Known about the structure:
By secondary structure, the chain is α+β, with helices and mostly antiparallel strands.
Amino acid sequence: xxxxxxxxxxxxxxxxxxxxxxxxxxxxxxxxxxxxxxxxxxxxxxxxxxxxxxxxxxxxxxxxxxxxxxxxxxxxxxxxxxxxxxxxxxxxxxxxxx
Length: 98
């Protein structure tokens, strides 16, 4: 079975960054150019929200999630797996910049 391409990117953003919405929850961005159908974008957003439930960002920061490719089937299991991989990639990237 061919491996699905990486479809989720995660960055950690300071909560006091200008231009951020007032809420402290995670930010989820799904560009229309990436996922054309609104119903699929909404499904991905709901599945991601469920997958990140209970995930705490460090104090003074919020997570920003960006969907970079359209997943084949946005299931909770695939979202949790991709979320875990995206957090590892983000942590490795952060460690390289230190």
